[in-house]
Amino acid sequence: MSILNLGTYPPNQCGIATFSMDLRRSLLKNNYDIKVMAVSDENFQYTYPNEVLFDIKQSDKQDYRKAVQFINSSKAVQLLIIQHEYGIYGGEDGDYILELTQELHKPYIVVTHTVLPQPSKHQKQVLYQLCQNAAAVVGMTHKSAELLSNLYEAPAELIHVIPHGVPEFKKQSSSSLKKWYGLEGREVISTFGLIGPGKGLELGIEAVALLVNDWPQICYLILGQTHPMLKKYEGERYRNMLEDKVRNLGLENNVRFVNKYLSDEEIGEFLYMTDIYLSPYPNKDQAVSGTMAFAVGCGRAIVSTSYAYATEVLAGKRGLLAQNPEPEKLSYLIRSLLLDEALRTRLQNRSFELGKSWTWVNIGKQYQSLFKQILDEKYINEEHILSYGGL
Question: Domain limits of the chain?
């Protein structure tokens, strides 16, 4: 069978592009023929790999019409996966995607990356319509599934919870990695991901400032480049603000920026030498965090603000949650882990146990099972129609 994945895709540098690539790789290992329909911002020119069969310019309505004609006319494409995030698609709140689904003659699955608990009227309508005609709707947490059912009125029987997948990171020695990166003998805190306002990195810096008197060798690694779209329109304004804050607080020796887009191998290295992973998102409605999922996959001890995804993932004493996004609260929790190695080890073990079930090998099997269910039902329905028509 042939499956088509619709969303952003590398070399586009964003979390959903990486997710799409990782999902494809996991399905290929299970002998699924999966191709890609990429969505590109019209201001960026990407040279896509061969698996990309069609490129939709984000704000070109005609491209969505051409895309649906392409899918409908292709005998090879049996199922479409739509990676949904409001900012991916053109129109108001990404409503151009509805242009495609309304004319689509093939079943499709919606994979939701953002499920807002307080959407605008139009945001709610877009996701509502997308879910109503879907063959299945995937939420990455149970909270997202509840919102999809109760708020967006997605049919309950169509909703499936499949966690965010993570790479199979090679376990490595923290002490060896610290030596390699020049951080030997230092307590390492890290946060990674594309940088921009809303990530709460200023909270992390201020929290570290409250710890340096007792741990003068502490090092906070801020890993990742500025989001390409943000950089295009605002340059490095946010990063410059963070760097100014570091200088003003006298933390030049305690905060290190690694300004690059990290490979999975590099992410694994940085995470395995991390003593405490910090996730300081100030927005409590954050439904999914691929970066936290990666930290769980590496079995890190995690300190986080209590946003929606963190609250669910770190339940069962898998991590420490600050009830409010305040540097004092975060520093208190970091301090407790720096003082208690046994607690840190317990959190790492619990996190790692969960992370093992999130590897892309396992997540790919869950998607494979869902695809089979949908296509089997489609086949049975078509056989029933043919049989009925022949009576």
Answer: 2-165+359-389, 174-356
- Phi, psi angle pair for 151, to nearest 5°: -100, -45
pTM, to two decimals: 0.89
- How many CB atoms sit inside 10 A of residue 361's CB? 13
Of 144, 141, 138, the closest CA to residue 159 belongs to 138
Q: Cβ contacts of residue 41 below 8 Å, gap of 6+? A: 58, 229
Instruction: Indicate if 174-356 has the same CATH topology as 2-165+359-389.
Output: yes
CA 81, 145, 190, 234 torsion-angle sign: positive
**Residue range 189-245, pLDDT digits in tens:** 999 999 999 899 999 999 999 999 999 999 999 999 998 878 888 889 999 999 999
Task: Report the Cα 202 to chain-centroid distance in Å.
Answer: 21
Q: Is the pLDDT of residue 1 over 60?
A: no
Chosen CATH of 174-356 out of 3.40.50.2000, 3.40.30.10, 3.60.20.30, 1.10.1200.10: 3.40.50.2000
DSSP-derived letter for residue 226 is B
Which tokens belong to 278? 């910090």
11 cis-preceded (ω within 30 degrees of 0): yes
Fold classified for 2-165+359-389: Rossmann fold (3.40.50)
Residue pair 123/147 in contact by the 8 Å Cβ criterion: no
Burial 265-290 (b: 16+ CB within 10 A, else e): eebbbbbbbbbbbbbbbbeeebbbbb
The pair of three-digit structure tokens given for residue 86, joined into one six-digit string: 């409001």
Alpha-carbon distance of 165 to 51, in angstroms, equals 21
Helical segments of 39-173, H only = 61-73, 96-101, 121-132, 142-150
Largest separation between any pair of C-alpha atoms in the chain: 84
How many helical (H) and strand (E) elements, i.e. helices and strands, does the chain have? 15, 13
Q: Give the other-Cβ count within 10 Å of 323's Cβ.
A: 9
How many Å separate Cα 195 from the centre of its chain?
14
